[in-house]
Amino acid sequence: MRVFYGGSFDPVHNGHVAIARAARDALHAEVALLPARDPPHKAATHADAEQRAELLELAIEGEPALRVDRRELHRAGPSYTCDTLAELRADLGGSAPLAWLIGADSLLQLHTWHRWRELFDLAHIVAVQRPGAEVDAARLRAEAPQVLAEIGQRWLPPDALADSPHGGFALLPLAELRPESSTELRRRIAAGEQWRDWVPERVAARIVQLNLYRDPAVILPASSSSVRP
Ligand SMILES: Nc1ncnc2c1ncn2[C@@H]1O[C@H](COP(=O)(O)OP(=O)(O)OP(=O)(O)O)[C@@H](O)[C@H]1O
Ligand SMILES: O=C(O)c1ccc[n+]([C@@H]2O[C@H](COP(=O)([O-])O)[C@@H](O)[C@H]2O)c1
Fold first, then answer.
1. E strand residue ranges, the chain
2. CB of 111 closer than 6 A to ligand 2?
3. Ligand 1 atom closest to Cα of 179?
4. How far is the CA of 61 from the centre of ligand 2 (A)?
5. Where in the chain is the domain with CATH 3.40.50.620?
6. Which of 83, 106, 182 is the best mutation target for the ligand 2 pocket, counting ligand atoms within 8 Å of the beta carbon and taking the most?
7. How far is the C-alpha of 14 from the C-alpha of 181, rounded, in Å?
8. What is the pLDDT of residues 71-115, one digit of tens each?
9. Ligand nearest to the CA of 71
10. pLDDT recorded at residue 132
């Protein structure tokens, strides 16, 4: 089983690392983290793609079975997950079990992703709980009925995913729900509030060295303040 975890990682925080570890341990699999060059649902990012990837490398340094996959950095245009999964499928072959990891807030929005139903033809989808966005069937029915309908017959225990190459859905509980978000982290850095305990120390030191996220404009919505990667 191969697990892939995409994100803006702008910047990476301890919540991201906890999710990657939890998926690795629950699915007994290597987890590749993929920084998105151009996240489709974000107007722009606040650090460029190379900087975000470098911080991600630092965040997982020394972590067994976690690695960074830079393939989305080399592709022009929006970093659509269906395109990334098609590339991975071509690389790994049709029979390799493959899973794409997302947070619960992303699951509630899955129906807005580019060619979203095709994602299940390419990979399993694994969602992890997130504070404020915890999902269950009732919440999906209320907020994302199309998603619930699509995953209805696909719902599997996590251990069963490795038995097929794609098409399943699993929900991973997290032993400890992590409150971190990149938006709040950027706000704290710009506001001069305490933030360093939300990231590994190596990441904090590099953010300071590169003088990232210090501009108070990062507190504004991304579209009015940011650089394109
Ligand atoms: N604390 C967390 N708990 C669970 N899932 C998370 C957490 N932080 C991020 N994720 C998930 O990780 C994926 C990548 O997240 P992303 O890089 O956008 O970070 P973020 O903290 O959500 O950023 P932002 O606040 O800028 O939206 C998404 O699917 C998101 O739902
Ligand atoms: O393919 C899409 O349309 C799509 C829409 C929204 C998000 N994604 C992917 O989901 C991951 C998390 O996105 P985000 O915006 O929460 O950082 C990241 O890998 C994005 O490329 C993908």
1. 2-7, 30-35, 66-68, 98-103, 124-128, 169-172
2. no
3. 1
4. 24
5. 2-173
6. 106
7. 9
8. 999 999 999 999 999 999 999 999 999 999 999 999 999 999 999
9. 2
10. 86
Sheet of strand 98-103: strand arrangement: 66-68, 30-35, 2-7, 98-103, 124-128, 169-172
Reported in sequence order, the residue ranges of 44-202 that DSSP labels E, i.e. its strands, are 66-68, 98-103, 124-128, 169-172
Helices (H) and strands (E) in the chain, counts: 9, 6
Report the separation in Å between the CA atom of 117 and the middle of ligand 2, taken as the mean of its atom positions. 14
Whether domain 2-173 has CATH 3.40.1170.60: the reply is no
Interface TM-score (ipTM) > 0.95: yes
The token duo for 220 is 């504004």
Q: Is 229 in the pocket of ligand 2 (CB under 6 A)?
A: no
- The three-class DSSP label of residue 196 is helix
